[in-house]
Amino acid sequence: MNGDFLTEFYIASCVPEPDGGAVLFGLREDGSLSELGRIPMPSPGWCALRNGRIAAAVTDPEAGESYAEYSILSGRRLRGPVPSRGVSFCHFAADGDDVYCANYTTGSVLHIRGTDAALTEHRVPDDGALGPDKGRQERPHCHQCIFSPDRRFVLVCDLGLDAVFVYDRDMTLVSKANVPAGHGARHSVFSPDGRTLYTLSEMASSLTLFDWDGTRGILTPLETVSFRPQFPELTRTVGSPYSPERIDPERLTDAASVVISHDGRRLYCSNRGSANTVASVALDGNGRNPKVLSQTPSGGNHPRAIGLLADDRFLAVCNTFSHNLTIFRADPDGTLTHLSDTPVPRPQWIEEV
């Protein structure tokens, strides 16, 4: 790492080649950035760093929505493209030769194992347990795949079914747990000690805390809290670009991303929609009892992804629709202080090197 930088990180610029790809930035103490490199890719969405590679959900000109891996050193494609066999491939979890790909629109998960691939489709249960929002929960919608802390299980968030599904590595269903009806489970993150799962629900801008039994692969709901910003909060925010005329109360917020600090005492959650804010949430010493501390304007439009940097001292926000990457200083009390903005075409993912 260059001595001028506190840390380096990649973002995904989700536009076609030659402009799209994974972009490497260096972060300085004052929040300023310098571009250090670029790996061309066709419209990468969700990505992940793994073993000297960048894995990516891409839209290949020939294969369509696909999984692929690229060398960080040479930029050469090393694996794929493997078609996701679904529509709206939005997230994946990868470990060794195993890759689990979430297809949002078709409500399916593709399990890639070496050169083989098998598709698991989420079905509406016999009790007809779709979410109550007929416009957005008209069918299953797989939104994320993550591993349990010991990587024995694969957890899948489904917005349409208001549920988190737990599978073994062969995609045999082990258990299922629900968020409140109509909330729309989107993304989850585990506490550092692996005892608690925090599930962000997109449609309600809520967090559901689950106790995790890693031996049996079972989630037990603990509580759900809202981090949906209130209309007065937005209009009172100093320096906010928002005005009452620009805020649509019916489409105030769509939550997108959740990250947790290394000490497990702080969560950050992004709100899109008319709000475009980042919520700071405090947790107690056991990673429980969440309390929303503040709402901060995201610095742009549609904060799809956020990431903590440099030992949690900074927060980066990918504002997809305004094409900018915003850097905040993140204080221990949850305060976010705007430091810089950098133009990036459709930023959608961020990960520290």
Total strand segments: 28
- Strand share of the residues? over 45%
- Radius of gyration over all CA atoms, rounded: 19 Å
List the uncertain runs. Answer: none
Structural write-up:
The mean pLDDT is 93. Helix content is 2%, strand content 53%. The chain has a four-stranded antiparallel beta sheet with strand order 3-2-1-28, with no helix packed on it. Strands 4-5-6-7 form a four-stranded antiparallel beta sheet, with no helix packed on it. A four-stranded antiparallel beta sheet has the order 8-9-10-11, with no helix packed on it. Strand 2 and strand 3 (33-40) form a beta hairpin. With 353 residues, it is mainly β. The radius of gyration is 19 Å and the shape is globular.
Summarize the structure.
With 353 residues, the chain is mainly β.
Key terms:
single chain, 353 residues, mainly beta, four-stranded antiparallel beta sheet, 28 strands, globular
Which secondary structure elements does this structure contain, and how are they paired or packed?
Layout: E1 7-13, E2 21-27, E3 33-40, E4 47-50, E5 53-60, E6 64-71, E7 77-83, E8 89-95, E9 98-103, E10 108-113, E11 116-121, E12 142-147, E13 153-158, E14 163-168, E15 173-178, E16 185-190, E17 196-201, E18 206-213, E19 218-226, H1 231-236, E20 255-260, E21 266-271, E22 277-282, E23 291-297, E24 303-309, E25 314-319, E26 324-330, E27 336-343, E28 347-352
Antiparallel strand pairs: 1-2, 1-28, 2-3, 4-5, 5-6, 6-7, 8-9, 9-10, 10-11, 12-13, 13-14, 14-15, 16-17, 17-18, 18-19, 20-21, 21-22, 22-23, 24-25, 25-26, 26-27
